[in-house]
Design brief:
Largest sheet: 5 strands, mixed
Structural class: mainly beta
Number of helices: 3
Strand order of the largest sheet: 9-8-10-12-11
Number of strands: 12
Distance between the termini: 12 Å
Strand content: 25-35%
Helix content: under 10%
Order of helices and strands: EEEHHEEEEEHEEEE
Shape: globular
């Protein structure tokens, strides 16, 4: 991603979860590459219900996660059914809401962050400035209720396909350029 001109923002270890990340931040969203740092830590509570080691081992498991934040002042509750995940690296009461589909390894993890927001994002113009569209392909016969709820998310399209793949369009694809990062990452970037 850096080789095509994207700027990496910051990285960190997720204590108690056994993962680390690399992030690419845009004016209206972020791409986070999460990887397993410590299998034993990931298999311990509270992180074990996230099933990160199993997601890596199982051949057709989804390599993706979708994280949503509040975009309005209303606190209308959780956008989908799920469970509370209190990671060690957050202060108590600041917890993720993880979708019930977390047991379906073939689907992406769906996470809502209720304590952040409302997030007001302004779309910037230029090269590699904003996320215009994210198309997520999942090789399933049908989607869970959790994943169906995400179909109404702004700039996100989820479709049934033949493979796990994300097509990320930046800056409305103005330059007409594209890079397929497969097989290293199941990601196509258009800008």
């Amino acid at each position: 991603m850096v080789s095509i001109g994207l700027s990496e923002s910051f990285s960190r270890d997720h204590k108690g979860q056994g993962t680390s990340d690399r992030r690419f931040t845009f004016s209206n969203g972020m791409v986070e590459l999460l990887y397993l740092r410590d299998r034993q830590e990931a298999n311990n509570a509270p992180a074990q219900k996230m099933r990160f080691p199993e997601r890596i081992q199982k051949e057709n498991a989804s390599p993706f996660g979708i994280i949503l934040t509040r975009t309005s002042d209303s606190n209308s509750g959780m956008p989908f059914s799920g469970w509370k995940y209190q990671p060690d690296y957050f202060e108590p009461l600041n917890a993720f809401h993880v979708g019930d589909n977390s047991e379906i390894l073939e689907e992406p993890l769906c996470v809502y962050i209720p304590f952040v927001g409302p997030v007001r994002r302004k779309e910037e113009t230029g090269t590699f400035k904003s996320m215009s569209h994210v198309q997520l392909s999942v090789p399933l016969g049908e989607m869970s209720e959790t994943l169906c709820v995400l179909q109404s998310t702004d700039r996100l399209q989820i479709e049934l396909g033949s493979e796990h793949l994300v097509t990320l369009t930046l800056d409305h694809g103005r330059s007409g350029l594209s890079r397929d990062l497969c097989p290293d990452l199941p990601l196509v970037i258009n800008w």
